[in-house]
């Protein structure tokens, strides 16, 4: 079934002249597990980040951090900490981003949150609150990142079938970064997947008015 067959033709996500964008980032975009063998330049990743970093986070905490895994040696180290069903995808992707939450994000708050000058000091004494905030907001930024990568024409294969503690021990010891997920990134080979598109829930299934 074509992707568009699953979409209610009466629904409009964005203004009508932006349907191409909706198609690129949502309705036509698939989760990609098969990529063409082209290098993804760091400049492109940097440009995507320069855009998506403007997505909102609580108190502008912006705790998302990225570890870029590109070399054969680095991806073999990473592949040792992902579930077996995901391993070949990490080994084959043009570039893989380990997405982490920085539990020390508060150290940047004097710059990031000048409107809340005491926030950094307050958070310094409550590491559990910081970790929860870091994880929640880095996940939020992960969504922005996936959409931004797609908007740049790239395909993305997010994965949480990983041993996050193992990835932390392998790459992030001595930092406040905590691994959340892994994103395989590159240009899709065809649709980038053989899996048929699965439906989504409708507005009536997910929303209630009070
Ligand atoms: C946070 C997250 C974690 C995921 N983890 C995995 C994973 O570990 N392995 C995998 O094969 N797919 C994983 N997926 C892919 C999802 O199964 C896929 O995005 C979903 O089925 C929708 O597919 P579609 O975008 O092609 O419609 C993950 C997706 C997300 C967003």
UniProtKB/TrEMBL annotation:
Sequence ranges assigned to domain Nitroreductase in this UniProt record: 30-187
One Pfam family recorded for the sequence: Nitroreductase
Compositionally biased residues, Basic and acidic residues: 192-210
Spans annotated as Disordered: 189-210
PANTHER family with a match to the protein in the record: MALONIC SEMIALDEHYDE REDUCTASE RUTE-RELATED
Protein name: NADH dehydrogenase/NAD(P)H nitroreductase
